[in-house]
């Protein structure tokens, strides 16, 4: 009460400051002495107050991870859409009807339209599956999403990864995808 008069006089939004003091009072009750409370408060101060919130400030190099559903209505400068393959787009659980496939197509459209300047669609060649068969883990080849038609692909600039190591310049713009004979490779393995 004594502080309230001073806070009203000093601060336009004094209710916020009163809330801060109430929180400090509650917090102080968790310590055995005033000395211990002040020591802890000094060594490990709260990282936020209940002051009026403004727009958050983000550093230039930050990352936002989002589901497509929660990204509706939002936009970012650069967007990466992962696993643009059948089984993910459309989901393997949505291939039972034309309506579900259409809903998956709309969902991918939402993902593609979140980018303001740069969009990257990641289409992995192989997937690692854990415990999918009686033989344990396996690697399987994935197919590009059926939604990535030739008409859509003509609007994109391909960026292909060649090689197994991440070191060096393995990404080449405008490169054509690698063509391999899967059957021959499998025969070589056995």
Task: Give a verbal description of the structure.
The protein has 190 residues and is α+β, with helices and mostly antiparallel strands. The protein has 2 domains: 2-43, no CATH class; 68-162, 3-Layer(aba) Sandwich (Rossmann fold). It is built from 7 helices and 6 strands, in the order ααααβαβββαββα. A two-stranded parallel sheet has the order 1-2. It has a two-stranded antiparallel sheet with strand order 3-4. A two-stranded antiparallel ribbon has the order 5-6. Helix 1 packs antiparallel against helix 2. The N and C termini lie far apart (84 Å).
What are the SSEs and their pairings?
Blueprint: H1 2-10, H2 14-28, H3 34-43, H4 68-71, E1 76-81, H5 98-112, E2 115-121, E3 126-133, E4 136-141, H6 150-153, E5 159-161, E6 171-173, H7 182-189
CATH class of the largest domain: Alpha Beta
At the fourth level of CATH, the homologous superfamily of the largest domain is P-loop containing nucleotide triphosphate hydrolases
User: What separation lies between the terminal Cα atoms?
Assistant: 84 Å
Helical segment tally? 7
Order of helices and strands: HHHHEHEEEHEEH
> Shape from CA axes?
elongated
Count the domains.
Answer: 2
CATH fold annotation of the largest domain: Rossmann fold
Estimated share of beta-strand residues: 15-25%
Q: Give the low-pLDDT segments.
A: 164-170, 174-178
Helical coverage, percent range? 25-40%
Question: Which structural category do the helix and sheet elements fall into?
Answer: alpha+beta
**Strands, total number:** 6
The strand line-up of the biggest sheet is: 1-2
């Amino acid at each position: 009460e004594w502080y309230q008069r001073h806070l009203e006089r000093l601060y336009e939004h004094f209710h916020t400051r009163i809330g801060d003091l109430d929180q400090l009072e509650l917090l102080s009750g968790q310590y055995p002495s005033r000395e211990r409370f002040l020591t802890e408060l000094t060594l490990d101060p709260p990282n936020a107050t209940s002051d009026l919130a403004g727009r958050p400030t983000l550093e230039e190099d930050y990352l936002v991870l989002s589901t497509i559903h929660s990204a509706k209505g939002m936009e970012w400068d650069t967007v990466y859409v992962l696993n643009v393959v059948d089984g993910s787009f459309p989901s393997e659980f949505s291939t039972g009807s034309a309506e579900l496939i259409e809903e998956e197509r709309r969902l991918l459209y939402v993902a593609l339209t979140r980018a303001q300047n740069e969009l990257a669609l990641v289409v992995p060649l192989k997937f690692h599956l854990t415990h999918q068969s009686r033989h344990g883990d396996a690697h399987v080849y994935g197919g590009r999403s059926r939604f990535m038609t030739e008409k859509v692909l003509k609007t994109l600039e391909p960026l292909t990864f060649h090689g197994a190591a991440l070191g060096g310049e393995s990404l080449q713009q405008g490169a054509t995808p690698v063509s391999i004979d899967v059957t021959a490779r499998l025969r070589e393995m056995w």
